[in-house]
Every structure is written in C-alpha cells, then in structure tokens.
Amino acid sequence: MPYDTSILPKWAQEHIHNLELERNGAMRQLKEFNDGQTEAPISQLVTVPKKGGGTDSMRRYVQGHNLSVSWEGVELDLWLAEDGVRITFGSKDRRLSGGAALFPQSGNAILIREVEYDR
C-alpha cells in the first residue's frame, strides 16, 4: 500500500524515491540471478521479498552432487549416488562421548540431533 509522501519535506521525498529505486534495482538483479541458474538435483528454498511487500519463496540450485550441513552440533553429509541418496551424520565435535541420533517424526520426517550418552 503506497503512502502519500507529498506532505513530507522535499529532501525526504527524494530520499524515499531513491530508496525505492535502489530496492527495485536490487530486486531486479536478484530475479535475474535466480532466473539464470541452471537446474540441479540439489536445491534450497529461500524466502525473498515481494515487490508489493511481504515475502515469497524461491528455489536456489546448488551445482554438484553432494551437500554438507552443520547445525546444532550435528554434521550431515548427503551424496547423490547411482543407486540412491546416501546420508551420513555424526556429532560435530567428535571429542564428545555422544554422537548424533535419529528421532522419527510424523510422516516421512526425522529429526537428527546431537546426544550425549552416559558411560
């Protein structure tokens, strides 16, 4: 929803106009970058701003056949192989007495998190 900037001082109107031009240019460059990507088997869903406000989702492709994720003490590696998808996981800090464990969730989802075992 556009705001009426005519009641603002001239310098403020110009500043807002320049910010809008800068934002529109940045959004155009992001769209061109994303549209120019080559599709790949591995992708990431990212949130991007919409022109009229709010957000939208966009897929960003990762070129290659492997991916590593490090989060909350867990290391996860994913490889695309001819016979399927291989996943390995473990504790980020291999010195801990624990490791990482799978916890089933609803549907086809699992949670992988770092755990420490009593010895």
Plain-language structure description:
The chain has 119 residues and is α+β, with helices and mostly antiparallel strands. The chain has two domains: 10-62, no CATH class; 66-115, no CATH class. The chain is built from one helix and seven strands; from the N terminus they run αβββββββ. The strands form three sheets. The chain has a three-stranded antiparallel β-sheet, with no helix packed on it. It has a two-stranded antiparallel ribbon with strand order 1-2. A hairpin with a 5-residue loop joins β1 and β2. The longest helix is centred in the first third of the chain and has 26 residues, at 10-35.
- The pLDDT mean sits at 82
Q: What is the chains' assembly state?
A: single chain
**How many discrete structural domains?**
2
Largest sheet: 3 strands, antiparallel
Count of β-strands = 7
Characterize the overall form. elongated
Strand order of the largest sheet: 3-4-5
Secondary-structure element string? HEEEEEEE
Quote the beta fraction.
Answer: 35-45%
Which regions have little confidence, pLDDT < 50, spanning 5+ residues? Answer: none
Cα separation of the termini: 61 Å
